[in-house]
């Protein structure tokens, strides 16, 4: 039986994360299933007004909770005018206040045009950049539909490191014809760049992308699972050896340099999401904004916010989500803490029989109530979570 949210931990006085979605890109990458749109013209003043109104609505609901992290994602938020970024950050500070060590991350593409804005973005308050390099190989970048070349990407990385204390970058691996040695060489180059955080993603063919259509038409075959597992194992070995171990299945960092914002998601903290298609989770509710930019603007003008769906999270559903998110982390979960947080018995959160079986198989590790997926089994994470989680039908959206 699901418990009322009144039995759940009261998060009203704890910190908060803020996600701001800028939905516009110069072009759509063939692998991308994010909410991104190409528009010939963008009225920055209209978007400033809408985002500020959407933020004010959320701030009224979550007043008194200082923001410890902000993430500007997209889309391509590095295409935002730095003055707009400064205006949004200033408003967030006025609404909530920031913790002393607030992390403010902006996603950026490594084009020379965007790199030229880095100084102004740093002056606006951004203190961490996540750079979408994706590859150091020109042929791979063309295959991935990226607008920059390898040399331009490296130049943008150096520029970012001059302006921001913390710089992360992304690479995509396990491309169809990539060899293990090619990836070893590229990863060595990445580890030589002096960054303290890397996001390393296997190429995944997502539905409703151009790559999904290309695969259906036989234009290329994705890398098979066994080969991809070899790439994953090499990635884990090399990053650990370089002092940037995985702290989440695709994210690697030196101790203390983990993305505070993403840890909020994986540790099931509260976060506000504004902008087209943004998701949020606060006050025991899951929210989703209108995805299409024009629909979002209309909703904000009509309602004072961009929310399309808002759904109450019962304790059972929230606990299952917290389990699934927490097991993505190499630190795993504290089952007793989850049970206390959501006011549920442990057997309502995890299937103990399956946990014992997976532990005997070497796929999970447990020390009392501390549970995690074995490092060598992370490639099987989705299947393991499906075995362990206890699900209950979600409440209907309102």
From TrEMBL:
Cofactor(s) needed: [4Fe-4S] cluster
Keyword Iron-sulfur found: yes
Gene Ontology molecular function: 4 iron, 4 sulfur cluster binding; coproporphyrinogen oxidase activity; metal ion binding
GO biological process, one term: porphyrin-containing compound biosynthetic process
Domain of life: Bacteria
Compartment list: Cytoplasm
Domain Radical SAM core: 10-245
Cellular component terms per the entry's GO annotation: cytoplasm
Coarse class of the protein's main subcellular location: cytoplasm
Entries under Pfam families matching the protein: HemN_C, Radical_SAM
Keyword set, alphabetical order: 4Fe-4S, Chaperone, Cytoplasm, Heme, Iron, Iron-sulfur, Metal-binding, S-adenosyl-L-methionine
Function of the protein: Probably acts as a heme chaperone, transferring heme to an unknown acceptor. Binds one molecule of heme per monomer, possibly covalently. Binds 1 [4Fe-4S] cluster. The cluster is coordinated with 3 cysteines and an exchangeable S-adenosyl-L-methionine.
Family to which this protein belongs: Belongs to the anaerobic coproporphyrinogen-III oxidase family. HemW subfamily.
Full protein name: Heme chaperone HemW
Organism (species): Alterisphingorhabdus coralli
Gene: hemW
